[in-house]
Structure formats: structure tokens, C-alpha cells
Amino acid sequence: MTNRPEGDARAERNQRRAAARERAQRARTQQKRRQRGVRIGLQVGLGVVLIAAATVVTLVLIDSTKPAGPGPSSMSRGGITIGQDLKAVSGASASSSPSASATDSAEPVRITMYVDYNCPECAAFEKTNRTYLEGLVDSGAATVDIHPVATLSNRSQGTKYSLRAANAAACVAESSPDSFWAVNRALFAAQPEQGTAGLTDAQLQRIVHRVDGIRDTGTIDSCITDQRYGKWVDERTSAVTGGDVPGTTLNEFPGVPLVLVNGQRYEYSQPFTNEEFRTFVITAAGAGDETPTPTPTPTRTPTPTPSASASPSAS
After folding, report:
1. pTM (two decimals)
2. For residues 171 and 26, what is the distance between their CA atoms, to the nearest angstrom?
3. 263: left (phi over 0), alpha (psi -120 to 50) or beta
4. For 58-115, what is each residue's pLDDT tens digit?
5. Cα diameter, the chain
6. From CA 221, how far away is CA 227, in angstroms rounded?
7. Closest CA to 204 of 164, 231, 173
């Protein structure tokens, strides 16, 4: 065996150590690069997520501040006017707003109602005075403006039934306005108990379908499903509850039902009676020898409307 000089062995050990240190340094450098790459990736990913989140928030904020689209063409001031034959009145006469002193004998009595389809008192008023109102309107002695609002949307277990029902009514006002009176009656007849989830969109659609003479049911169905007028109803409700109450000089909204006769508020007692309302109509209209009677006897059969038993079944 040949022995190498001690100096050669030492030099070899030094070379091995140097090579090991170099390998360790390369490994540390590569590890640092990998860690730096991971950090950059995380930062980029987080940045993308934050940008996406900011974009979503911005879009939501923009959408929430964007004004609602136009409401139904027959509801230019938030309500639809029902006239003779229980059909919608179009034109300037439907959008004009009566003053509290409007008692011109040449003009029909103007009755304005703000209603919520989840309001039991609204349903009770409608049931008590429906026949009387139909006689007044069908004979030409009065017109009725109906303003659906959604003041009770928080009383249906989060489903916003008030808003969805008012939206359904608005869909009918746009696509089949002459059927609005009958649909309004049917919605009250099928009113769910307050505090429940209310009717589904499918049930609302079935209520509309059951009304005689309804037109364009396909468009109305999609309008109900899409809540096409939901934001418009919400904005109109906010305006009304904020004091913008067309048809009256009131600057505060007293709640639903709000009933006005020639701009004067009907301050009802409960239970509702037709006698009390009839007396108020005559008084507010300035009844006298020169004023047409607001209690006419119709000379023809009123337009058919759905019976109060038309309540949908959940399916």
C-alpha cells in the first residue's frame, strides 16, 4: 500500500469540504428562489382575489345606486287608474293628480288606494267595499287609482312577499292592464297569513292565469320570475313612505291601507263597514243637488272577476 503525503490528503479533504459548501450554497440559493417564487405567487393570487372582490363590491354598489328602470306604462305615477267597465284608463286623465278640493260635478269622484298585498286590513277593506266600488267605477261615477306598495316585505320570513306580489301586479299592469282590477281582487282573495313565507312565484303566476281575459301570460310569467319591476316597486315604496304621496297633500305616509277620496284621507274605524265608507265618499265628493250621486245602480252586468275562493294550492 502506497502512502500519500500528508499534505496531499489535507488538500483533498479541503477540496471535498469546499465542494460540499458549494453544493450547500447552491441548495440554499435554490430553496430561497423557490420560496421567493411561492411568495410572489401568493401575492399575485391574493392581489387577483382582492381586485376581483373590489370589482364585485364596486359593481354591487353601482347597481344599488343605479335608478330603477321605468315602471309599467299604465302606472306613470306609481298607480293604475281603473275606470268604466273596470278597465284601465290611459292618457293624461290617468296620470293627473286630484287636489283635496276637487268637487267639480263634471268630474267623476277620484278614489285613490295605497295597498300592500300582505296587509290584512287592506284585504278587509277591499272585501267590505268591493261591490260598492265596482258599482261606482262601472257606472262612471268614480275612478279608482290603485298603488301597490311593499311596506310589509319584512313580514314574510325573508321571502319579501309584499314586494313580489306588488311586482306581479305591476307585471299585469304592463301586459294586461284591463285585467288589473280582477287580479287585484284575486291577490287579496288568496292573501297568505302574515308572518308566513307567503305565496311562491309559481302560485302568483297561477293566480294571474285564473283571471278571465288575462293576456300575454308568458310575458307576465317571466316578469314575475325575474322580478322585473321589483326595484321599481322598492323605490316607489321608499318614496311614498318618505312622504311623496301622489293624490294628496299629505307629507307623511300613515301606513296601509291609505284611502283617499278627491285627495281627502279616509280615517276609518274597524271593523270596516260599507256604510261608513259610503258616507265618507258622499261627504268628500261634496254631495248635493248639483253633484252626481256616488251610489249608482249599474245598468249592465259588471265585468266578471274571480271568486274569493280562488286560492292557489302549494305544489
Report:
1. 0.70
2. 73
3. left
4. 444 434 444 557 899 999 899 999 999 999 998 544 544 444 444 444 689 999 999 9
5. 146
6. 10
7. 164
